[in-house]
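Entry:
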Amino acid sequence: MDISIFLAKFWGWYFITFFILLIVYPKRIKQLFEFANDEKFMITTSFLAITLGLLNIIAHNLWVMDWRIIITLFGWISFIKGVTRFAFPNFATKWMLQIDFKWFQFLLILLFIVGVLLLNQAYSLVLF
């Protein structure tokens, strides 16, 4: 299987899963914002983000002007987010707490749409 297809499936299902979970359990959104003040949470999530980002970058660092750039960008975003959380936890906490609930909902919907687009590319559901 092509690595682009594999990662499109991974990121697509990842975004769709978290969208559904956060819609079904909205109290988790509030908990995420509360955990932003917890240093252990920030360190743990930074390690996860760095690992996920590095794996994505090593496997798929394609700077092409088609749908595959989305996968590359999410790898770099994950890596940069992880490094920022680890190296500058106060900055990351402050930035996260500035995002209000409406912006979070917008980002959640945006990630759902990206997830659907990636799954469409991976499974060739709708040709366009």
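The chain has six helices and no strands.
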